[in-house]
Design a protein that fits this description.
Chain lengths: 206, 150
Amino acid sequence: MKDKLLMRMRKITIFLLLLVLLMSGCAPTTQIVLLPDPDGKVGILEVSNVKGAQTLNHAWQATESASMDRTPSEPKILEEQNVRQVFREALAAEPIPPANFIIYFKTDRATLSTESLSVLAKVIEAIQVRKSTDIIVSGHTDAVGSGDYNRRLSLRRARAVTDILVARGIDRENIQITYHGKGNPLVPTPDGVPEPRNRRVDITVR
Amino acid sequence: MKIYLITICVILICYIGTATAEEPRAGFVKNVSGQAFIERNKVMVPAKVKDRLMANDILVTGQTGSMGLILQDNSVMSLGSNTRLVISKFMFEPADAKLSFVAQIKKGTVVYLTGLIAKLNHGGVRFETPAVVCGIRGTHFAIKVEDPGN
């Protein structure tokens, strides 16, 4: 009789234990993994909640937490292939990061040098690799000359670059032209100062 | 009295100006596979390549879905299947030093590579999950939040 009661209590205890396990399994655990950058460098990540904080600063290092009132776990380095497996869908969908290019111009000119044309070949390659439909071409000048004149010059520069891209098969609809005149210089200078690094067209391929 | 009226007019003009200004763009959809949606003002529409993203959009993928996104600051984000992510805040106006991106991951898998916001404003990028807050100084990471329904 006593044995039966004991058995029953045991069963209940096991059931309760299972229930607790099940419930803790329900908590939406967060796992965070620091990945190496596309160029191989490794950044820094701070993971925190009300209970504490962890810093990740090694490739494939991870921390986890089940809820806001549990300290994030001690950082641990995971197997690269396991991380790649868990995040395979998101990693497969990850777009190539946008690329930036600069094309320089001679004073008061909107024509491209031979050197600039070779940069444009790289731009076209970047567009093709990304199947880019979002290309931004922005024209700039240095601080010599009037504001109005430089706005027009910066637009001519941006258009010159765009025309070559289009002539080489890039869809004009995918290119947005902006022009800044003397605005947004790469190297800030007082008005009237010539600065070759500011006579440029910036191109972003996304 | 006259000054009072002028002030009111100026305030009104400013107000109209902001009301008609185009909603700032947070980014765009770069690729989509399987079931992937954008939920905006409680309406869910299938996500398509080149779709614009805005602050307060919710990105949703189903059992077989995934999507890749490029944000205005040239950061790059992608979602695996069975994921729900809210773009809680997105401000990229370097001229006014308004630089922040806050996302909430409700469930699923997300990979993110930082862009200009994280570079120009340390502490400007934050990912929140039901269990932790991630402050991102840089640069490339993956987050998985278990589905609370499982």
